[in-house]
Amino acid sequence: MVEGDALESADLRSRLETSPRARVRGMANEEEPSHSLDDERPGVPRRLAETTTVVPLARRSRRGWKSRLRRIILAVIGLFAALVLAGLGYELSLPSVANAPALVAAIVRAHKGEVGRLPVPVKLGEAVVAVEDEHFYGNVLLNVLDGAARAGLTALHTSGDPGGSTIAQQLAKQLYAVGSGFGTTLEEVGLGLKLSVSYSRPTVLEMYLNAVYYGNGYWGYVKAARGYFGVGPNQLNWAEAAMLAGLPQAPSSYDPLLHLALAKQRQGQVLDQLVANHILTAAQADAAYQAPLPHIVDQRATE
Question: What is the pTM of this model?
Answer without folding.
Answer: 0.67
